[in-house]
Amino acid sequence: MDSQQIRPRGAARLVGGLLVVVLAGSGALALSSVPEALPMPTGAASSSAEGVSPNGTLIVGLSEFGGRNHATLWSGDTALVLDLATNPDGDSYAYDVTDGGLVVGRRRATAASGFEAFVWDSATGMRSIPYMQAAWAVSADGRVIVGEANGTIPALWREGAEIVRLTGYSGQALGVSADGTVVSGQVNVGGTRHAFRWTAADGLQVLDSPSPAYVGSYGVGLSADGSLVVGMSGGPPTFVATSWRGSGPGVLLGDLPGGSEVSQASDASADGRVIVGNGNLDNFSHATLWVDGGACRSIEEYLLTEYGVTSPYIDNAKAVSDDGRTIVGTYISYQLKGWRLTLPPDITPPTIELGSPEPAVLLPANGKMVQVALSGRITDVGGRVASASLEVVDEYGELNRQTDITGNLATDGSFSVSVGLRAKRDGKDKDGRIYRLVVRAADRAGNAAVPREVQVLVPGAARK
Q1: Cα separation of 253 and 393, whole Å?
Q2: CATH topology of domain 3-342
Q3: For 366, how many CA atoms within 13 A lie in the half-sphere containing its CB?
Q4: Residue 449 in contact with residue 404, Cβ under 8 Å?
Q5: What is the DSSP letter of 299?
Q6: What CATH fold (topology level) applies to the domain 351-463?
Q7: Which residues pair with 330 in a beta bridge?
Q8: CB 415, CB 387: distance < 8 Å
């Protein structure tokens, strides 16, 4: 990608105190399966994407103008610089945004002054949050904002209410669930950093490193349902991406091969299936993702393997939308740029392969129950099989039933199950009794596989 492709031209104008950059071209940026540079506001030297709205349509971060950083909101082909006109000598950074366009972050009036947390929307502009120095995340409805208060105390703020300090330890509240009831972050206890999960009912729960080989832990992101905290374990110079389910023990997510062990998980989709961050490949940082509990993969390798798409080098992934399809971050070419990747929707159903039942013929027809074994394999792009079932369709209607076999699937999709069938047929049935074993499956996107079936026969009198 050359500079003409990734740096759009546009015209700037002031609207309500905002620098609005309208980019030349036809329509909004198209959905893409290749990371694309975010529009660079006119006059900006660089940009960085820090957060994405739950539905993936809005992106926030910062743009640099003359050595000063200013909070920026991207929507389609428009970049809004939130305070360049009102705070030209200061700095501001945007970290999170709701679907409705409420932005949170931090700002300062000059390079020498302290930071204060802010909340911004198009109706009221940028407002300070009293006694908070940074706002790192916001709930889906915009009612709960988390960050730091009184210097570096993890805190929670609701409009019109007092700040809730989550602990007496120093640290940061960095993530909040969609409904605002679960908060994640990190605290400093006895000189060691620890990830945490907080709820009003349980208070602050420390999430330790899952291995004594890595001292300390950092909670960075939180899934929208509040069930999964992601971050890293260890301390300089070694960090390993880590996840914690609820308040349970952590799981090391691993790193890319080669070089020093330095990986971090930054955010997760709503259900925790997709985790994004960065890893170290031959001593270079690469944007990475973990899908369905799989290994650490660079986004370049993932796109090439799964979609046959060659991607430019991208440095890190900062955030992911709730559906796991829109990922944002930063990459370095001749200048620092924010980027967006929108993965295509999953429209490919799983594939079912079945072996022959064993036995396929039930003899003698003595009325006894016989265990029939069936093996097969169910695969899906990305390994996202959500459900699988085995239905017995009895020609006589006596043993019809359906069994969930999702739990029987191995990591490669293979399975082996058995079902009890009666070796009995009507004495006048010359064609025999037929049992149909029908396997069905669907993936997490709701795509249903073409059902596959095999038959088991109790031979009729004419086939003795």
Answers
A1: 43
A2: Neuraminidase (2.120.10)
A3: 5
A4: no
A5: H
A6: Immunoglobulin-like (2.60.40)
A7: 316, 338
A8: no
